[in-house]
Specification:
By secondary structure, the protein is mainly beta. It has one helix and eleven strands; from the N terminus they run αβββββββββββ.
Amino acid sequence: MCYIKTICRGLALLLFQSVTAQNFTGYWEPEVALNYKVATNYSHNFSLDVRNYTYRTNDLQLRSRHLDIAHFSKLDIGNSQSLAIGIQYRFRDVFEDEEQNELRFTQQYNITHLRGTIRFGDRLRMEQRITPNRTIHRFRYRFALDFALQGEKLDIGEPYFVASTESLLSVTRGNGPEWDQRVTTNIGWLLSGHTKFQTGLEYRLENYTQNTENVLFLFSSLIFFL
């Protein structure tokens, strides 16, 4: 429980700073995801999410920003390690005429290790974000932990806790590098042997070396396993 208290205090401080900042945007992003195994060490993930404005330019609003469709293929390579590749398409111009759609490719390496009842994870990602006008290369590192909130293992009907922090570097021709930082906390429930529901908050400090933007997300995810 001390982990939760420490993380929640830090997140509360970040949330207070973001809400009181001048350059602040709020979003709500619901998601549906499907995971299924193709072989013993190979699996697929499909997801669909919609990002909606909830607060922008000092005004409360509920308006869709974009829709994402994504697919990941993951290969477990042993010793709690995995490699994955992904493809994502972002529909943007349907919701905002001045914006462009985006095609994204992702390459990922992930490793987890267990200490007592807590699982720790390190994830490295490279992304190519392609729009008609430019290509952005992004490099990401995420550290995460998760654990059951009741007992030593997660049983059906019980909650779990997930927290992470992620650093991002984006580079593109003609522009300087852009640095972002994200802090996320989620609480989830194992609804059945094949279904999870997860909800939480994420605070993003975007482009913090140049023109800092404070962004707050409310996430909700329904995840199916086959």
